[in-house]
Amino acid sequence: MSETLDVVEPATEAVLAQIPRAGAEEADAAVARAKAAFPAWRAVAPADRARLLHRLADALAEHHEELSVLEARNAGKPIADARGEIGMVVDTFRYYAAAPERLLGDTIPVPGGLGFTVREPLGVVALITPWNFPLTIAAWKLAPALAAGNTVVLKPAELTPLTAIEFERIALEAGLPEGVVNVVAGPGRECGRRLVEHPDVAKVAFTGSTEVGRSIAAAAAGTIKRVTLELGGKSANIVFADADLERAAAVAPLAVFGNAGQDCCARSRILVESSALDRFMDALEESVGALRVGDPLAEGTQMGPLISAGQRETVASFVNGDAPVAIRGEAPEGPGFWFAPTVLCPVSNDDRAAREEIFGPVAVVIPFRDEAEAVALANDSIYGLSGSIWTRDGAKALRVARSLESGVLSINSNTSVRVSTPFGGFKQSGYGRELGPHATDAYTEVKTIYYATDSQ
Ligand code: NAD
Q1: Considering the domain boundaries, does residue 114 fall inside one?
Q2: In the predicted model, what is the mean pLDDT of the chain?
Q3: Residue 207 in contact with ligand 1 by CB distance below 6 A
Q4: Is 186 within 8 Å of 161 (Cβ atoms)?
Q5: Looking at residue 121, which CATH number applies to its domain?
Q6: Where in the sequence is the domain holding 73, given as residue range(s)?
Q7: What is the percent of the chain where pLDDT is above 90?
Q8: What's the chain's Rg over C-alpha atoms?
Q9: In this structure, are 169 and 244 located in the same domain?
């Protein structure tokens, strides 16, 4: 088997870089380095660990533009989006730089003495990440894991490993000790699988497809590893007739075509109240037509290509089914894994395009009669990650939000991911939460200590 991995630029189909291909042996070596570095790293005083994380955030900020260009080229994402994502990486490290000094426990009255809890780091943590938001999703795991005193082995997706490799270099440059951050870029079935089964790995934090997440949870059971899973989605964008329809239609395209639809939070099922369907579709057609699809490095581009030829084939298979194509946007010809933004309407919630995660720029529009039907349709999915509710009726918005089986919702907006608020799924979208004030809980064990104060 080849010793190197070709990393392809999706907008040109040219090889962007060749990197060493990590297999099981490299995974073992990385775990050994992380294990050796753990005792010293956990012993670093909290304020010093905080200072190092701030230095890392500063170093990442200094490399902001170069990381953004690398991410844009490797993942095929618009440069403006890449800049925003690398900005979030910096913000994530700053946010969790405060965490080492806030790993608090409880003091609990018990007979004969004092009970209290402390939070202990887990040890070596494996972080396995997808290709759609490469360094951003890695940062959601890296920052709280390191803040809590763990050492890490990060396995990025083999299609988009370049910013992770740069990250390892920048972490050393910022002063993190050798072995605290280890990156292994290799195939999931070999390198990733080895990390999941490795007896010296205490936890796997995984983001990726539900199918691979299921196999990771099963493999991790062998060593009773802690696992958190951020998986797929098929989120609903519920538009009631009393909403600001022009605004809802204006932002709906980027809620599903942002990152070329390769977004676990994509609101790819647009549920529209029947009485407003025609008005909404007219406005949607206009906003899809206005989307700028093209060269990821050109300023102003809003949508780039798909990640690979295989992904394009999968996405195309959803467009030739029973559901009629209502809107088709533009996409460049020629080299690059391009796919035009596409809206299918009307679609039944039982259609394959409404049930499966397409992970491409294809949205389905499903009409509904009333609030009860909207909630029932939205919840009729194996997934429960994200979603939006558009209405001017505040009580209805909150009622629907409370009824939806979904981890992260937004009302009159299509954004729901913030560094300071928890993110994660219900149902087969996974378990565990990243981001927000409690993310370090997932990288620590609670230890209870009883101190006897009475003589017997
Ligand atoms: P994937 O599941 O194919 O791969 C994810 C990672 O797992 C990659 O690094 C891959 O190499 C590795 N992997 C594959 N098989 C493995 C195995 N047997 N053992 C260990 N590791 C293995 O996902 P992808 O195609 O890279 O990403 C797209 C998927 O990720 C979509 O389903 C999307 O919804 C999901 N996703 C979820 C979130 C979220 O936060 N919920 C965020 C982004 C993406």
Answers
A1: yes
A2: 97
A3: yes
A4: no
A5: 3.40.605.10
A6: 4-231
A7: 97
A8: 23
A9: no
The answer on 266 and 189 residing in a single domain is no
| pLDDT of the residue at 351 | 96
> Has residue 1 got a pLDDT over 70?
no
Q: Which amino acid is at 291?
A: L
Q: Which of 322, 386, 327 is nearest to 354 (CA)?
A: 322
Alpha carbon distance 430, 406 (integer Å): 11
User: Residue 334: its pLDDT value, please?
Assistant: 83
Q: What are phi and psi of 310, to 5 degrees?
A: -60, -40
Instruction: Judge whether 102 lies within some domain.
Output: yes
> Do 245 and 104 share a structural domain?
no
- Per-residue pLDDT band for 286 (boundaries 50, 70, 90) equals very high
Q: Is 447 exposed, middle or buried (0-12, 13-18, 19+ CB in 10 A)?
A: exposed
Question: Would you say the CB of residue 131 lies under 6 angstroms from ligand 1?
Answer: yes
* CATH number of 267's domain: 3.40.309.10
Residues 404, 285: one domain? yes
Q: What is the pLDDT of residues 336-357, one digit of tens each?
A: 999 999 999 999 999 999 999 9
Confidence at residue 321, expressed as pLDDT on a 0 to 100 scale: 81
- Distance between CA 339 and CA 360 in Å, rounded? 8
* Residues 51, 181 within the same domain: yes
Output the furthest CA–CA distance in the chain (Å, rounded). 82
Q: Which of 207, 315, 337, 429 to mutate to test the pocket of ligand 1 (most atoms within 8 A of CB)?
A: 207
Q: Which of 193, 192, 183 is nearest to 19 (CA)?
A: 183
How far is Cα 366 from Cα 378, in angstroms, rounded to an integer? 10
Check pLDDT > 90 for residue 196: yes
CA-nearest residue for atom 16, ligand 1, is 188
Distance 12 CA to ligand 1 centre (A): 24
Find tokens 């539900």 and name the residue.
210
Question: Rounded to the nearest 5°, which phi and psi values hold at 193?
Answer: -60, -40
* Residue 456 pLDDT: 60
Return the pLDDT at 2.
58
Average pLDDT (179-188) is 98
Whether residues 205 and 264 share a domain: the answer is no
Q: What is the pLDDT of residues 249-280, one digit of tens each?
A: 999 988 999 999 999 999 999 999 999 999 99
**Residue 310 burial class via C-beta count within 10 angstroms: exposed 0-12, middle 13-18, buried 19 and up:** exposed
